[in-house]
Amino acid sequence: MSEKYKANDPKGIYFITITVVQWADIFTRREYCEIICDSLAYCQREKNLTIFAWCIMTNHLHLICSSPALANIIRDFKKYTAKEVYRAIQQNPQESRKNWLNWLIKSAGELSAKHEEYKFWQPGYHPILLHNNGLMEQKLDYLHYNPVTAGFVEEPEHWYYSSARDYAGSKGRLSIVLIQ
Hints:
single chain; alpha+beta; Alpha-Beta Plaits; 4 strands; Transposase_17
């Protein structure tokens, strides 16, 4: 098995990406983004996850983070948030895409290697060890400018679900450790 995308350094800081199946635009609703934020905050409090930067886009999540048990935390995070977002979709009377999302998530589950009832996240989380300052700055800029590049905002700090606010001197949605 490849060692290229594994979080093998327990003290390392990693850039990771977690993607919704078929790159479906799930996180267009605040309710679903809040599930992600609450779960990340829980992982910070209870599972020793340190977050240096983060950004929720419409169909994926980027983190710059560290933990001695990163792979286990991400596994648990994905399992929990998949259930919670799926449940929220079912219970949301305003969700006009419910039938399509149900079909998409259930189809992904049926096609998965484990033949699950449903599947919300794509496999893996693509950890990249940030082993020098240049790479750290590159990924930090990429993460924060993602909503700008997508055309959602003109300045990174205008994107609510991002740590760009913290780096611009305001208080963001999650507690983070600033990269100096």
